[in-house]
Amino acid sequence: MKTALLIVAQIAMLLLLNQAGYAVVTALHLPVPGNLLGMLLLLALLASGLLPLRSVEAGASLLIRHLAFFFVPITVGLMGFADLFLANGLAILFTLVVSAVVGICVAGLSAQRLAARKEGGAR
Fold first, then answer.
1. pTM
2. Which residues contact 38 (CB under 8 A, 6 or more apart)?
3. What domain range includes position 89?
4. Residue-by-residue DSSP string for 58-75
């Protein structure tokens, strides 16, 4: 019971940060999604140490474990756009493939540079 309450409190904290991101975007009329700003706020709090990882770790782990379930509504919603996909399928596919390749390359190069930096610092 204690663990369940801890997870609920941590998820509530994550939702509060998400809503704070939306509030800032609305108040400042920023051209970015509110949830992105909420995630950046979470990152800043975690990186600065103002919010210890243990304060959100269990709740975030639960959400990540069940992440696939969050894609069901969007997938069902996309079924209504069959005409759009038939008309623009090749362009959409090309965009998805190119963006995936770029993302994988950037992640790989970043990981290699970080590993090389760590290796150089260890000597």
1. 0.64
2. 17, 18, 19, 20, 21, 22
3. 71-123
4. HHHHHHHHTGGGGGHHHH
* Shared domain check, 86 and 58: no
How does pLDDT run across 21-67, given as a tens digit for each residue? Answer: 999 999 999 999 999 999 999 999 999 999 999 999 999 999 999 98
How many distinct structural domains can be found in the chain?
A: 2
Q: Are 35 and 82 contained in the same domain?
A: no
